[in-house]
Design goal:
This protein has 82 residues and is mainly α. The protein has one domain (13-80). Helix content is 63%, strand content 0%. The protein is built from four helices and no strands. Helix 1 packs across helix 2.
Length: 82
């Protein structure tokens, strides 16, 4: 029997999941290499200088795919719970 419910597609939710996944992977790579992940990610977001992020586990390439403005907006919404 087929489910006749309409599927929904939420671009915002999917994009936020993708950003969270990238940040989680980058955090883990920085931690594995012995860096302070939060400080390094903040340094990258503020400066857009990719050298704040290690190449370990392709972390630098991953984070460079993100739009910094989009990441900041997501973090502010999360922090303010809006």
């Amino acid at each position: 029997m087929k489910d006749n419910k309409t599927q929904t597609f939420n671009i915002k939710e999917d994009r936020e999941k993708a950003i969270r996944s990238v940040l989680t992977d980058v955090y883990a790579a920085l931690k594995e290499k012995g860096y302070d992940p939060v400080s390094q990610i903040v340094g990258y977001i503020l400066s857009e200088d990719p050298t704040y992020i290690t190449n370990h586990n392709n972390a630098r390439s991953l984070i460079c795919r993100l739009d910094r403005d989009e990441v900041i907006k997501m973090m502010v919404r999360y922090y303010l719970d809006v």
